[in-house]
Amino acid sequence: MAKYLGDWTGDYRGSALAVLRPASVAEAQALLRLCSELNLGVIPQGGNTGLVSGAIDGNGTGLVVVSLERLNAIRRIDPENFTLQADAGCVLQTIKDASEAEDCLFPLALGAQGSCQIGGNAATNAGGVNVLRYGMARDLILGLEVVLADGELWSGFSGLRKNNSGYDLKQLFIGSEARLASSRVSRSSCSQNRPASRRPISALPRSRQPSRCSTGRAGPAPI
Ligand SMILES: Cc1cc2nc3c(=O)[nH]c(=O)nc-3n(C[C@H](O)[C@H](O)[C@H](O)COP(=O)(O)OP(=O)(O)OC[C@H]3O[C@@H](n4cnc5c(N)ncnc54)[C@H](O)[C@@H]3O)c2cc1C
Fold first, then answer.
1. How far apart are the first and last CA of the chain?
2. Is residue 128 pLDDT above 60, yes or no?
3. CATH at residue 44
4. Do you know which InterPro entries this protein is assigned to (predicted)?
5. How many structural domains compose the chain?
6. pTM of the predicted model, to two decimals?
């Protein structure tokens, strides 16, 4: 259990009643439902790279660690819409590599990208070295599916870029650092891919892409 109880820097050590490692959304729901019924607090853990002991129980308050490492599939890549769907435990580098294989760019980039997970990136609203050009994790996530504390599934899962239907509730979870619901486990983020500038992908001829050429940023032109 040791690897789930310590910060990789060695600065923080914690404890846990148990470490749970769901491999599917259904398992995550069942485990959180059980913890809720037993009145056990849980703490989601991604790649544990956060550096501030947010993913470990440093105070020894008897929490259960829920590691997302087994919930790590890329579900879908859509290079025409510049989107992908991935489980919360998907390592950021895996997402970047999969995007690259489709000649796309997933622009979130940080030192921990070989270990941190997209769910952790969402929970911390990670910025990284490309933040000035492409924005924070908040700006790259189009939709979320979230397992709530009682095991209920909240679906705000969308790949729709122009979505003005009411409140953007997913933003409540992004950057919450698991505080809003300590047992929150996001399953999938549908993240915006922007094509690598060296080789833009589009069904449109180049002459019809003024926004891409003029700003250097990709994505559909504003409507
Ligand atoms: C070398 C290095 C460089 C970094 N550079 C940057 C940088 O440039 N910009 C930046 O913003 N950050 C940076 N970070 C910190 C960065 O925010 C984290 O590394 C990363 O985003 C956290 O992801 P993680 O999967 O490791 O999450 P963890 O460390 O495992 O968890 C972080 C928090 O998120 C929660 N959490 C994790 N997964 C989930 C989930 N699936 N659902 C709900 N809550 C969850 C945890 O409970 C915890 O509160 C850096 C870290 C390192 C080690």
1. 51
2. yes
3. 3.30.43.10
4. FAD-bd_PCMH (IPR016166), FAD-bd_PCMH-like_sf (IPR036318), FAD-bd_PCMH_sub2 (IPR016169), FAD-oxidored/transferase_4 (IPR051264), Oxid_FAD_bind_N (IPR006094)
5. 2
6. 0.85
Residues 84 and 164 in one domain: yes
Q: Are residues 20 and 92 in the same domain?
A: no
Pick the closest to residue 222 from 200, 156, 210, 131 (CA basis). Answer: 210
In a domain, 167, yes or no: yes
Q: What percent of the chain has pLDDT over 90?
A: 54
Mutate to test the pocket of ligand 1, among 45, 138, 148 (most ligand atoms within 8 A of CB): 45
50 vs 8, 38, 57, 77, 159, CA distance in Å?
Answer: 9, 28, 13, 27, 27
Domain range for 189 is 74-176+184-195
